[in-house]
């Protein structure tokens, strides 16, 4: 037994003695890609409903490029990140993969993703916020695929009953919540997410107050604007016009049943509500832009990006596929397929998108929407924010203290850049 | 008499409580999407529908995926039946100087939090060139520590004289192993089959990472595609849950007889 | 480490001694042959990864280094020191301790109670009940999570509806930090007691009738018989269930991952989940250190349990 332990320690020691960071892993330079005819096959990974639908959708690409086969593998959302990192570790990456918009920093640093070729993709055609999610350390990797942003969903019938219009400012939002509770029987007021993912509702408030979360390349949370944002967020819980004792599963049922008269979310909820609310529910709610703070109504942008891996065996075809997906016409077709909003601005001119009035609200919001920086440590920072947000929502912490705690914890974690 | 009746009542009530979540899942797999989400929730389906199952069949290549799960589980079971017994035989019926060391390795394998091993194990699998293969999926599970324990405890109780006598008669070890010892091990082997089948059948994270194309997905991995989508398909997920559980229940019922004796021997000696 | 091994060997069955006449050379080699499949698999799939897991805990390895895992800095015990000061890790340790301290006894008590109930002459229905009670064991957590979430729904889940019928206002089980962890303990007990029940059932069958009859002669009541006859005979089964459940519960990850994502406010954050989170966040070195600590605690606990619960006749 003792021999084994010794052997093990020796082995560990040997390994460790060979360790040591030797400078940076080299700067990535974008290389042009061959834009001629492509052939062969490419493997593509994607998660969620995109993963489910991309396989059939990609047949159009195959039709337009005879000789090319696209093999799509759908992944579960919870496992996608682990899968990609493991694949990078084992050198078994696909040609193309969909990634979350906050993953680029980490992936770029692994050195496994290919910088975007300069001769293929025109960055100006994307929403500025979405292009930021594929940029790291000055270099762009991959392209944005689709975007989503957040707006204010509200029950038109309950608002009518309470005699209020959708709120245009922070102040009006507070009185809206009070009115629907007092006069229209919405026992929960408005619904704000205060658990997993709550940072997505806090960041817009910070931006709307004129603040930001980064300063000189470091996290900046202990700011007056953050305190203002948290105060606004907490005001509903203090006034009893937002629920903080409900289960995660309560939403969106509480909206459908009229217990909560409003919530903040993205375009996918349209289809979820129409499906779950039953017949006629679509007429009972509408979407309005985010209520504006002192610096405007900036919302959060999310979505999905696409990357090509350096180890791809068919670089030309991989990038051509990615380029095809970001073509305005394809983006509009993809919207019709999965209801994902295009990351390409001109695609919004397509009749299919123009026809849906509700999409227009999101389209407008996208022009100014911002994203969190794609730093490698973002997941941990988000967790820190969520923890403090929950304390604030449960009235266990003051906004000012929360901001300070966020700052100190974030400083401990760093940006990982 | 009254005591027995009271016992039955208690047991039945207990059964009701225990089986409720499962029962709700099965019943709800026959409800419409809208009814599943109803508040207050219903128990019996108001308008039974097979929509969940139909969606399951349409959106998943259920046949391939089910087959993969079966192949993975069966190979794992057979491998464990053989390999665990072999190690147990070495630990109990053969002179073995490294017995303690091997025992330590077995405990190590059982006690290490497996999440830390995932990436290094994937690197191994990648270097072996078996990524995206059934072999890669089953590799870490071919010999499971609990299986070794089971066989070891039971084999230790088999009288050494049997083995002894066979040796004197000139039988080789493998012959003794297959002809004399293993046939006596039906109970623990049945238990081992069930436990290893369970582990392999319900396993999610590792197969999800190793399989890179849909045709190599196992059932839990395929179901996970639908798990966190924006508009959750509860009907599909519940139907999937029922499909996942059914083979195991059938296996359990089939192995019932052997099962109790098998597990017993691990514990009581 | 050698002491622990020796203890375990004593706790197991006595192994055949070299007193039996057999050619030693042949026997020694054959043992290696029989153990080969396990050893080869261990060497290939576990030895390297185990050393890697341990090794990375002494470095600042991050997920961004996976392509060049040796291009990292050794940091000595820095990761381990950081663990001591990490509020979330402390919470996770406490939660895990609570989970094990309540979950293991509950699972064993319910398993034993069910076994005793089924053992006392139910006869034919025994298979029926046994199957039913074992059912939760065979379900995978992902499949059953949806059902549990609906059952525990604060407004209209079956549980709160039932409580409401007797006038009790049920809390938001999974959303309230005071009840979230106990709810998960209940879930784990529900899932696990069937396994213990089957073990105890079989062990009960191995208790000789004469012992009970002798106790009857001494005028012992039912409870005394249970304490003086049944329990001591169940000692080996108890040892097994305690050790096995402890090892399993110390690593509990699925319940919080699927049901509560560690919330609310980290009240259901388990050690394994915290490790998983650090891992997902890319802090491989730190996660490795946490995993090593968890492993050492598991080993220490098992060793302790063997010491305490070791059957007296061994």
Percent of residues in helices of chain A: 40-55%
- CATH architecture type of the largest domain in chain A: 3-Layer(aba) Sandwich
Are there runs of chain B of 5+ residues with pLDDT below 50, and where? none
Instruction: Report the major sheet of chain B.
Output: none
Q: What is the CATH level 1 assignment of chain B?
A: Mainly Alpha
Number of strands of chain A: 14
Number of domains of chain A: 2
Name of the CATH homologous superfamily of chain B = MetI-like
Shape of chain B: globular
Low-confidence stretches of chain A: none
Q: Helix count of chain A, per DSSP?
A: 18
The CATH class of the largest domain in chain A: Alpha Beta
Question: Can you give a write-up of this model?
Answer:
- The complex is a heterotrimer of chains A (about 425), B (about 270) and C (about 325).
- With about 425 residues, chain A is of the alpha+beta class.
- Chain A is built from 18 helices and 14 strands.
- Chain A has a six-stranded mixed beta sheet with strand order 2-1-3-13-6-14.
- In chain A, β4 and β5 form a beta hairpin.
- The mean pLDDT of chain A is about 90.
- By secondary structure, chain B is mostly helical.
- Helices cover about 70% and strands about 0% of the residues of chain B.
- Chain B has helices at about 1-30, 35, 50-60, 60-95, 100-110, 120-125, 135-140, 145-155, 160-170, 175-180, 185-200, 205-210, 220-225, 235-269.
- Chain C has helices at about 1-10, 25-55, 80-85, 85-120, 125-140, 140-150, 160-165, 180-205, 210-215, 220-235, 235-250, 255-260, 270-280, 285-310.
- The model of chain C is unreliable at about 1-20 (pLDDT under 50).
- Chains in contact: A-B, A-C, B-C.
- The interface between B and C is large, with 103 and 107 residues.
